[in-house]
Specification:
The chain has about 475 residues and is an alpha/beta fold. The protein has 13 helices and 25 strands.
Length: about 475
């Protein structure tokens, strides 16, 4: 029975939702998705802000997040369970922040290979290592599905007729001024927003992929972002989950200053369950505490392990996966700041941690966390700071003992991938000895450039400057 969050709503509330329901029905969106959106919309109408105040939380301790290195004894259990596991990659992102209009996972990352090339290589090596045809699934959005499927066409997903992908849903944008459906006749696509990766659970159900997996004896799912090439199926983490009978396991890492705005894990004072708090859920008065990395020490890497049998039970019991509401204020057209203000209803898949008793967290090394969110991140991964291991995992170079360099590139010239590529036509400079790199102005880097220490490259002129082949950059360099 699907939970109806509007049964107790007054007629005026029901009437306000009606145009949203009709709009979603017109697009062929499944009833269960309409009802999930209805639940969140009703919470918005009743004044929910999706906030988690500091005084409702308890920080997580070291004891509550055992270190990955201490779990080696679980590896054999994990190896035995490999035949019951699936790898799911979140692949709905377009990389619009980098000026892309196609799947972000198609970006060339290293040695001429894209994220997708490397993911497929990882899966082939994983299957060869364990002698199991471990299935791979992509959760695509409507905008990334075609590009992705053309790229992975022909990849063998093993016996049993499992698809290679399932589709994420979408929600209507909500006008801020009166909480009605947003309309934009010039480009109706802009009337919809992705619901966040929290939609994973509903999409698994509506696509019937969850049922297919369970019928084939696939009980455990490892889920991670397609742009995090350090996130690979792991024997000891799978074994820990199986042996400890954890229905839900979150990979966390120690927060540093650069992670202070990332979602952190804590416990609810009311029931002691783990909870994930994103910065959008933090009241403004608590922002200092949110960013206190000594207090809240573990951030969510967005790599999760889920027992699919437990997930199905939670979903059926609630009629949905109970997730924290995230209200994301935007403009209707993201590229037009004068377009109407809207609210996007979103959820994060990690917030499901609160729905499971005995949910666990493991502190993993940074080798399992190498996401690419900006062209600065991309430059670091492209550089000699990272190597490609035999199993196609992008791992820190053994020559790099310090934290990865912090790279800030002038958004006017490097934010978009085409502009970035044009200014690094020979690939990334050597960053193995670099602590930080900041580039201001329009600068082209020739081959064989080395960056060391804290480098700040400045070009204040209107014409492009060039860093010549063989140059060593350190300290402030004015061109």
């Amino acid at each position: 029975m699907i939970m109806d969050c509007m049964k107790t709503a007054d007629p005026a509330m029901i009437e306000m939702f009606r145009p949203f329901g009709l709009k979603m029905e017109e697009q062929g969106i499944p009833p269960i998705v309409i009802n999930v959106f209805k639940c969140y919309y009703s919470r918005l109408l009743y004044g929910a802000q999706g906030k988690l105040p500091e005084d409702e939380l308890l920080p997580l301790t070291d004891r509550e997040a055992p270190d990955y290195e201490s779990l080696s004894s679980y590896a054999e259990v994990g190896r035995q369970a490999m035949g019951h596991a699936v790898v799911i990659k979140l692949n709905g992102g377009l990389g619009t922040s980098m000026g892309l209009e196609k799947a972000k996972s198609l970006i060339t990352v290293k040695n001429g290979m894209s994220f997708l090339d490397l993911i497929l290589g990882q899966m082939r090596m994983l299957r060869e290592k364990h002698g199991k045809n471990i299935p791979l699934l992509f959760m695509n959005s409507f905008k990334t599905h075609l590009d992705t499927m053309l790229k992975v066409e022909g990849f063998d997903n093993g016996p049993g007729g499992l698809p290679l992908a399932f589709l994420q849903h979408r929600y209507p944008k909500i006008l801020h001024k009166d909480l009605s459906p947003a309309t934009w006749p010039g480009n109706p696509e802009l009337e919809w927003n992705p619901p966040g990766h929290g939609d994973l659970y509903t999409a698994l159900v509506t696509s019937k992929v969850l049922r297919k997996l369970l019928e084939r004896g696939i009980h455990y799912a490892f889920i991670s972002n397609s742009d995090n090439l350090g996130a690979v199926m792991d024997e000891r983490l799978l074994g820990y989950m199986v042996k400890e009978q954890a229905p839900f396991l979150m990979e966390v890492a120690g927060r540093t200053a650069s992670d202070r705005k990332g979602g952190h894990l804590a416990r609810l004072r009311t029931n002691g369950r783990m909870v994930l708090r994103e910065i959008a859920q933090c009241p403004e008065r608590d922002l200092d505490a949110f960013q206190d990395i000594g207090k809240h020490r573990f951030f969510n890497t967005n790599s999760l392990w889920v027992d699919l049998r437990a997930m199905e039970k939670v979903f059926v019991a609630n009629g949905m996966m109970p997730l924290d509401l995230i209200l994301n204020p935007k403009t209707l057209d993201p590229r037009n700041p004068k377009s109407p203000e809207v609210i996007q209803i979103e959820t994060a898949m990690g917030s499901a941690v609160s729905a499971f008793e005995n949910a666990q967290a493991v502190k993993v090394p940074r080798t399992r966390f190498a996401p690419v969110k900006t062209t600065g991140d991309l430059l670091v991964v492209m550089s000699d700071c990272y190597d490609i291991s035999p199993d196609k995992t992008v791992v820190p170079s053994p020559l790099r003992t310090d934290p990865m360099p912090v790279v800030h590139l002038d958004a006017r010239h490097y934010k978009k991938i085409d502009d970035f590529t044009a200014r690094f036509p020979y690939g990334a400079p050597s960053l193995i000895g670099c602590e930080s790199l900041a580039v201001k102005g329009d600068v082209l880097f020739e081959a064989g450039v080395t960056v060391t220490g804290k480098a700040h490259v400045v070009n204040d002129s209107e014409t492009q400057a060039v860093v010549r082949q063989g140059t060593v950059l350190d300290g402030e360099v004015r061109l």
